[in-house]
Write a structure and sequence with these properties.
3 domains, six-stranded antiparallel beta sheet, 18 helices, 16 strands, elongated
């Protein structure tokens, strides 16, 4: 595949920017980046599902044919047929989403290098390694914002158009590489994009106003923080055991959440938050205000620090997508081929669950969410890491214990007198079994309510003067605990064994009192 330099053709770029959620198909002279839902000829999108690439940049670098074969195929076919191209300049279109991030911009740089020269520079590993870290949000400032890549965030904040932002970003990459090659930035095995630079303004005089903005950003962050909504939520641990581990309590911990209910003024907020150790485990930031309701924001980015080895956000995207589907109903139903497997979503634009980011971030649909902030907050606080059990009717969990009469030599009339003396009355416990035989419905057994001083169980004893045996029935009054009650939290399936074991232990303590209260023993059945 011959490059444009080899063909003697000069390259120019046109740009097309998609709105969030807008679908597109690649045209013959167009490369589609961070959109298109696949990784294929003419399309570079690593957010469509499971992928081995940590960034768009890495995907382009390791699949240059997806760019070259798509955009240069026609020119090379003409050249191979012996017909020299009759043009000296060509314009390709770079298509990506509006508000392009670092990953899209750096992917444009690689596309440009490939098309012009047919290969990437030898020192491209600087950009590749940095972009992997930036795309996965793994770069921290540690208090030093004089890191060259951060200038792009200031460019994004001050830019007038998306095109201007991309072109300024290309200029920034070229300046960083030039400074590293000439020794203005001392690399010494370190990455010139992400490491601090002492002579920051001197190295990047074209970006002095952007550097000023970066230096003035910390007070804006502190002001944003004073207006945020802090709360706590249970977050799953990165090194959790298997999903059905009975000791699920070790697989989650309470984490600190900082939710900004309006878009922060600080452009470097995520760096400041991660530098403030211990203040925040999960960050929520909104964008895209609703035109009809400025207090409702249609985009939410929810993330934990990807550099920490503590928390992830597994299952959060799934539950938010479920709630999104319910609130939209049929009137606002999203269409298209499901972006992920069918048990996750039924459309091409669901909540992103973070599967390509180690489940460290969740993002709303590209078209925006209909969920209000309070609903999103409630789901985050709902123990999303586990499978919640619905409230059950009283008596859905019952423990039975078997006893025999203490005196096994009683006649029937003596047993009757003994039961009556201890407060037992005859009842028909099977009377509601309408489909059974009549004699079963009419069967009478002696009944006594006990342990009325506690609220955990509804306790009864059933006894027969004929068999001279008794059954103690302990029905749990509330299982699981109702989520509507103050001070309670919903039970999750992963904790079910632990919860049942605790109730069984409490039941056994009550049962131990039976021989002192009633003329029964349990030498045959045990406890």
């Amino acid at each position: 595949m011959r490059s444009l330099d080899q063909l003697g053709i000069r390259l120019d770029w046109d740009f097309h920017f998609l709105n969030k959620g807008q679908h597109a198909e690649p045209m013959p002279n167009q490369i589609l980046v961070d959109a298109g839902g696949t990784l294929d000829t003419g399309v570079i999108d690593v957010h469509q599902g499971d992928t081995k690439y940590e960034s768009l940049v890495r995907a382009v670098a390791e699949n240059p044919h997806l760019v070259l074969n798509h955009l240069l195929y026609g020119l090379n076919s003409e050249y191979a047929a012996g017909r020299s191209p009759q043009i000296n300049e060509i314009t390709f279109t770079f298509c990506t989403h509006s508000g392009p991030g670092w990953d899209s911009m750096a992917a444009l740089y690689l596309c440009d290098e490939l098309l012009r020269h047919g290969k990437l520079p030898d020192d491209i590993h600087w950009l590749l390694d940095a972009s992997d870290q930036i795309a996965q949000a793994k770069v921290k400032t540690d208090g030093a914002t004089n890191r060259p890549f951060i200038i792009y965030y200031a460019i994004a904040a001050l830019r007038k158009t998306d095109k201007e932002q991309l072109l300024a970003g290309l200029n920034l990459i070229q300046k960083i590489i030039e400074c590293a090659r000439t020794g203005k930035i001392q690399t010494n095995g370190k990455n010139p994009f992400t490491e601090p630079v002492d002579n920051f303004k001197a190295c990047f005089p074209d970006f002095s106003k952007h550097i000023d903005m970066i230096e003035e950003d910390r007070p804006l962050y502190l002001d944003d923080l004073s207006k945020a909504d802090p709360f706590e939520a249970e977050l799953p641990l990165q090194d959790r055991e298997t999903e059905n581990d009975s000791t699920h309590s070790i697989n989650f911990q309470s984490g600190k959440v900082i939710a900004f209910q309006k878009p922060p003024k600080s452009k470097l907020l995520r760096f400041w938050v991660r530098d403030d150790q211990g203040k925040c485990d999960l960050l929520m930031t909104p964008s895209m205000p609703d035109a009809k309701n400025p207090n409702h924001f249609r985009r939410w980015r929810i993330s934990v620090d990807p550099e920490q080895n503590r928390f992830n956000l597994r299952r959060l995207g799934f539950l938010l997508e479920k709630a999104e589907t319910e609130i939209r109903g049929t009137a606002k139903k999203r269409g298209g081929t499901p972006r992920f497997e069918s048990n996750y979503c039924d459309n091409s634009d669901p909540w992103y669950d973070g599967r390509n980011h180690n489940f460290t971030m969740v993002d709303s649909p590209r078209c925006g969410t209909d969920l209000p902030y309070e609903k999103i907050k409630s789901i985050i606080r709902s123990r999303f890491h586990g499978i919640q059990l619905q409230d059950q009717e009283s008596g859905s969990l019952v423990f039975y214990y078997f006893f025999e009469f203490s005196d096994s030599n009683l006649r029937a009339n003596e047993a009757i007198q003994l039961l009556a003396k201890n407060g037992f009355t005859k009842k028909k416990p099977l009377a509601d079994l309408k489909s059974s035989f009549q004699f079963v419905q009419d069967a009478k057994i002696w009944e006594l309510g006990i342990f009325k001083g506690q609220s955990t169980f509804s306790a009864k004893v059933w006894a027969s003067e004929i068999t001279q045996h008794a059954i103690v029935e302990l029905a749990v009054t509330k299982f699981p605990l109702s989520t509507k009650e103050q001070g309670t939290k919903p039970l999750i399936l992963e904790e079910l064994n632990v919860e049942i074991a605790a109730l069984q232990s409490e039941a056994s303590k009550l049962i131990a009192k039976i021989p002192d209260l009633l003329p029964f023993k349990n030498e045959i059945w045990g406890n």
